[in-house]
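SAMPLE LOG
Freezer: B-3
Tube label: C17
Construct: single chain, 87 aa
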Amino acid sequence: MKFENFDTRTDWRWLTPVWIRVGNGAAEAVRGPGEALEKLMYRWPNRADAHYSLAKTRCMDALSDPSKSHSARETFIRAAIEAQMLD
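STRUCTURE (predicted):
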């Protein structure tokens, strides 16, 4: 599955954003699966973590099926905890 060509214009928003911190930077709100996928692809520190790949897949799935948005959010949170990025 290719992730390079995702379209955030079809992004569904979560009711509550997930706050992460990339490195020593300021906390950032991630408001939906499109933003989560962008963080996972371009700003994630460790792509070998167990939840990383699953979070990418679930976020991509949620972009085309809003019923999968909750699952994407939960998996993204687990990946952020594992990467010690959850703020």
